[in-house]
Amino acid sequence: MSSTAVPIDRALSALPPLKLFIGGRWTDSDSQEQLDVVSPATGKLLAKIPHASAADVNRAVESARKAWDGWRRTPPFVRAAACHRIADRILARKEEIAAIISAEQGKPYLAEALPEVEESAENFRIAAEDVKRLESPIIPARDPNKRLFTFKVAIGTWGIITPWNFPTVIPSEYFGPGIAAGNTIVFKPAEQTPLAAFLMTQCIAEADLPPGVFNLVSGDGPSTGDALVTHPGIDGIGLTGETTTGDTIQRRAGVKKLLMELGGNGPQIVLEDADLVRAAKAAAFGAYFNAGQVCCATERVLVDRRVHKDFLDLVIEEAKSVYVGDPFMPEVKMGPMNNAPVLEKTERHLADALRKGARVVFGGKRVAGQPTNLFFEPTVVDNVSPDTLLNKEETFGPVVPVITIENYEQAIELANGTGYGLQMAVFTQDIDKAFYFADRLRSGNVVINDTTDYWEAHEPFGGGGGTRSGYGRLGGRFTFDDMTHLKTVALHTNNL
Ligand code: NAD
Question: CA 402: distance to chain centroid?
Answer without folding.
Answer: 25
